[in-house]
Each structure stands twice: as structure tokens, then as C-alpha cells.
Design goal:
Length: about 375
């Protein structure tokens, strides 16, 4: 079981997809754990890094150098590799890469539009020290060029999505206890950056026209949030639900879902909602999954959504506007043909993002890097 965060889940899915693309591919993982954590990982995890301890990142690089690894694939997120000390950002991935003597492909999960100087310099050095760099949307590649001054090649490999057909028939609304309901949904680890209160506050407008509407908030609270502040944010959402008398129209599925369960809930969804608050969010796995499932989507205009839902593939609404969310949902629910057309559009746009396809793309890049490095004199 991976650490319950988006990057860990993404890494586990990538490893599974690469192995599915070629069963002979050997994949090992070095996990990043918080100080004191000791998760019971499977045999794929061959080492651990203690988050925030610079020496631990360098030791991991030294262990890789002494191994028979052909190529390293790093999944970079500032929070996993960096710390702020005295107001100054220190990225431990730079120390890791300086120590590393193997070819490396680095995937950047966050590319800030207005980075502080140290973060911008860190990204520049990470790219310079990497053999190849990967982002998941074209907007991120543009930012690296225009904001970070990176002129080298950057690969765009999309965030993978489940191949729905590989699970067989998704469970129906009735099987999920949603029979007779018009279903809105947001899934993923819950934290205050998701803006879920605005989706809940939009429901009175939706329920007035669609009395059978039900909003599913699917997923447990992010473990890091629970450690810092407990379930404060979820309780705030429950209080809002009660104050607006929406107990029959909001349902919390408070657990960590398997990929199959995510597919089931998406299949039962009529309109997917991402009311996220960070305009700079460059990658959203939940948005990618909803698009891969062919769902009509209402979203705030964070960077990933602006690119993915352009040209009528979804409805973008202003940040922190319950009224706009409600009106957009109502518009989609009022016209079945249009809603289904929007869903078909996002499914077509996402046709190349199924994990089997993405796994093959990642494997091809890794093999190319390994082969090129083997031909280059040391």
C-alpha cells in the first residue's frame, strides 16, 4: 500500500502501468516517509528516504549508484523534497541529483507560475541535473520556457487514467445505493485547498431545480492534514451541510478508495465538480480521472482545468463562487444531450491517457534514456 498522498498513488500506478507494458521490466521504489513513519510496503520498495533529512536523500543516491539500476525516475513535488528554513526554501532533490551517477528522468508535478527566487533556481538546477524532464500538461512546458528560462527539451506525458473497460462493467447507481438520484461528485484526499464548501453552498440552487440531487464527497481527509489539524475542515463541511439543511443531499464517503471503486463512483456521476482554490494548480489527477471517464465537468479555472476543459470540453466558473457553480451544474442537468456531448468531448480528448498507453510512453522514454546513457562514455 503506497503512502496515502497523490504523488505516492501516482507512482504506484505508474509502476503498475510500466510493468503491464512489459512484464520483464524491473521496477524498484525508494519511498519517502515522514520522520518516525514505518509503513509496511510491499517488496517493490527497496529503500526509504526520511522526509526533510538532507543526508537521507544523499544516502539514497549513493545506494542507487552502487546498484545495477539503469535509469532513475523521480516524481518531484516541492513538499516531498523541500523545506522552508528561516523563510528560505531548500530543495533536497538538488542534493540527491548532485550525488546521483545514474541517468535520471524527473517528472515535475508542480510548476509554479510565480515562484520565489529559490524555488525557480531549484527547478532550473533540477532540470539541468536531469537527463530528461517530464510534465503532464502543455501549460507546464510553456511555464518552464517562459518563466524559468528553460530552453531544453521537455516531454509532455499526460497523467494516466484508469482503462474503465479493464474492470468490466462498473457498478450501477443502484448497486452503490444511489438509485433515483442525480449525482454530483468530487473525489480525492480532502483538504481546505479543494474548496468543497463552495460546492456544498451551491447545492440549494441545484436542489431547487433537481430535488433528487446528491453531492458525493468521496475520499478521506489527507493524512498530513489530519496530523496537523485533525478533522477540522471536514467538520466545517458537515456544519455547513447542516446549516443549509442539506443532510439528504450531501454524502461523505470517508475512506481511501481503490482504483476500481473510483471508477464505479465516476460511472455513477452525472456532473463532476472540481471547486479547487489554487489558480496555479498545474496537475490534477482527479480531473484527469473524471475526463477519462467521460464526465461533464464544472471546475474553477486552475491551470490544468483551463487547458484541459478549453474549447467547450467543460464549464469553467470563477473561484469561490457557489452561485456560479450552482448555475453551471443546473445548465448541464437541464440539457441531457448537451451534457452527454460534453462528456463525449472530454473522453475523446483523454483517449490517449489510459494507464496502459501512459505506461508504454513512460517505458519508452526510460529505455531511450538508458540506451543513450549506455552509449555515452563515462
Amino acid at each position: 500500500m503506497p503512502r496515502r498522498c497523490g504523488i505516492a498513488t501516482f507512482t504506484a500506478d505508474t509502476v503498475a502501468a510500466v510493468r503491464a507494458a512489459d512484464a520483464s521490466a524491473r521496477c524498484s521504489v525508494i519511498a519517502i516517509d515522514e520522520p518516525g513513519a514505518r509503513r509496511p510496503y510491499g517488496e517493490a520498495v527497496v529503500g526509504r528516504i526520511v522526509q526533510g533529512e538532507a543526508a537521507s536523500y544523499r544516502a539514497a543516491a549513493a545506494a542507487i549508484n552502487a546498484s545495477g539500476v539503469d535509469v532513475v525516475n523521480v516524481q518531484h513535488e516541492f513538499g516531498l523534497y523541500g523545506v522552508h528554513r528561516g523563510g528560505v526554501f531548500v530543495d533536497h532533490l538538488v542534493a540527491f541529483l548532485r550525488e546521483l551517477r545514474r541517468p535520471v528522468v524527473t517528472t515535475l508535478h508542480t510548476v509554479l507560475t510565480h515562484p520565489e527566487d529559490r524555488m525557480r533556481d531549484s527547478v532550473r538546477e533540477i532540470v539541468a541535473l536531469s537527463t530528461e524532464t517530464v510534465v503532464m500538461v502543455g501549460t507546464a512546458a510553456d511555464l518552464l520556457r517562459d518563466t524559468y528560462g528553460i530552453t531544453g527539451r521537455v516531454h509532455v506525458i499526460p497523467h494516466g487514467t484508469p482503462a474503465v473497460g479493464s474492470f468490466g462493467r462498473p457498478r450501477s447507481k443502484e448497486e452503490l445505493g444511489l438509485g433515483g438520484r442525480t449525482v454530483l461528485c468530487t473525489f480525492g484526499l480532502v483538504d481546505r485547498r479543494k474548496g468543497l464548501e463552495y460546492a456544498i453552498a451551491a447545492l440549494p440552487r441545484v436542489v431547487a431545480r433537481h430535488p433528487d440531487a446528491l453531492y458525493l464527497v468521496v475520499g478521506q481527509t489527507h493524512p498530513d492534514v489530519v496530523r496537523r489539524e485533525g478533522e477540522w475542515y471536514r467538520e466545517r463541511l458537515r456544519e455547513l451541510m447542516s446549516r443549509l439543511e442539506l443532510s439528504e443531499h450531501v454524502r461523505f464517503v470517508d475512506r481511501y478508495l481503490t482504483q476500481r471503486e473510483i471508477v464505479d463512483h465516476l460511472a455513477a456521476t452525472d456532473v463532476y465538480v472540481t471547486p479547487y482554490l489554487d489558480p496555479d494548480q498545474i496537475t490534477s489527477g482527479t480531473l484527469a480521472y473524471a475526463m477519462g471517464a467521460g464526465k461533464a465537468i464544472v471546475s474553477t479555472p486552475y491551470l490544468h482545468a483551463r487547458e484541459a476543459l478549453a474549447d467547450g470540453r467543460g464549464l469553467l466558473v470563477p473561484f469561490r463562487s457557489a452561485e456560479a457553480i450552482g448555475d453551471a451544474v443546473n445548465a448541464l442537468l437541464a440539457d441531457d444531450d448537451w451534457r452527454e456531448s460534453v462528456g463525449r468531448g472530454v473522453a475523446a480528448y483523454s483517449a490517449g491517457t489510459a494507464w496502459p498507453i501512459v505506461g508504454a510512453l513512460v517505458l519508452d522514454l526510460l529505455r531511450s534514456v538508458a540506451a543513450s546513457s549506455a552509449l555515452t562514455p563515462a
